[in-house]
Amino acid sequence: MDALSSPLLRAHAASPAECPITDAEVATLVALARARGARTLAIGSGRPPLALAAARTVAGAWESAGGDIALKLTWPETAASWLRQATRFAAAPADLWIMLGPPLGWAQMTRRLLWSTTWSPARTLLAGAVSDDRTLDLVRRHNLPGIAGTTRDGTPWHLDAQDHIVPHAKEHTQPHMTNRAR
Length: 182
Known about the structure:
The protein has helices spanning 23-35, 49-64, 83-91, 103-116, 133-139; strands spanning 40-45, 68-74, 96-99, 124-126, 148-150, 156-159, 165-167. It is of the alpha/beta class. It has a single domain (23-172), classed as Rossmann fold (3-Layer(aba) Sandwich). InterPro entries: Peripla_BP_I.
């Protein structure tokens, strides 16, 4: 990882308007976590109402599918360091981490995770709110080897060895879920 003097971004683009998580995103996150053999998740998000609702929705879907939640954690969009949140998130006894938006808070939290913890991007899935080129570039893609996620329409993706976002076919990741919690 590049040497960082702080997880705080000095300059950043304005975040796009926040949108609710889609059913397709939730289904893809659950399917990707299952495909990776996860049983227990740690879920992290920013604190705006739609981000909190997204975290509850993902947790509910995961639990409905028979999984466990080790930790649900929130972080602020701006902070002195994000060290407390990053330490708790990285230490969670989870098989996989799921991270939600908004983009600016996610990027700064991720920079702190990379700088100060044993967190692994390869054990992390991202929701659509933080799965675009501009957001990943806030952290610099080469710092995120193995990270994967879903777009808002439910298309799964991963970063390849050249730091390109590679989409996958959706039909291989959609689980059969009933009674998904809202």
